[in-house]
Design brief:
Layout lengths: L13 H6 L2 H12 L2 H17 L9 H19 L11 H4 L8 H19 L3 H12 L4 H8 L3 H26 L22
Helix pairs in contact: 2-3, 2-4, 2-7, 3-4, 4-8, 6-9, 7-9, 8-9
């Protein structure tokens, strides 16, 4: 990761700086709205808003400013869609990362880890998914997360602690139910999963 996100004054315009954060914006939107196509629409709408209101950017961390817009746009979309069921089915081709391994055993464990993390995160409330994605997947600092979600830093730390606890509980429950010794998958005690321990 870079030491510090670029700001508006660091070469190029704000538009160029915002484009460099497209992956982070999409990642946050996908975890919040839980659907690939809808996340693309949310990110497009968020970028249109960001470009439209670029004059309102007063300097500082452009990534945090953009992610706050993506977050607000995602929540607006969720409110509009609240009457419908917006749980997305897990699509392995879209949600899993490419694995470079030649060992079938390692491939099985890594695939099981990715599915476990995906399933455990999906069981969490949106506010917990959001804070885990911002901290653990996007690497934002507590201060940046506080700016994005508009709460004090102490609230970020306590919510993150609860989110990590709920994630560990969800992952443990999934390990017990889906990776039992009776199934063809690895047993819970043989599977060392991402996120099973502290996410610090």
């Amino acid at each position: 990761m870079s030491a510090r996100p670029p700001t508006r004054s660091e070469g190029g315009g704000l538009d160029e700086v915002l484009i460099t954060h497209l992956d982070a914006a999409y990642n946050l939107a996908r975890w919040l709205v839980r659907n690939v196509e809808d996340a693309e629409d949310v990110v497009q709408e968020a970028y249109l808003r960001a470009f439209q209101y670029a004059d309102g950017f007063r300097g500082g961390d452009a990534r945090a400013w953009l992610l706050a817009i993506v977050r607000n746009t995602s929540y607006g979309w969720l409110r509009k869609k609240s009457a419908s069921d917006f749980t997305a089915q897990f699509d392995e081709e879209i949600h899993s990362s490419p694995l470079d391994t030649s060992s079938p055993e390692q491939l099985l464990l890594q695939t099981a880890d990715a599915r476990l993390v995906e399933a455990a995160l999906s069981e969490l409330p949106v506010r917990f998914r959001e804070i885990l994605v911002l901290r653990e997947l996007e690497g934002l600092s507590y201060k940046e997360i506080a700016e994005v979600i508009g709460v004090p830093m102490g609230t970020v730390m306590s919510t993150l602690s609860r989110a990590r606890q709920r994630f560990r509980q969800a992952a443990g429950d999934l390990l017990r139910t889906h990776f039992s010794p009776k199934s063809d998958a690895p047993a819970a005690n043989d599977l060392e999963c991402v996120g099973a321990g502290p996410l610090e």
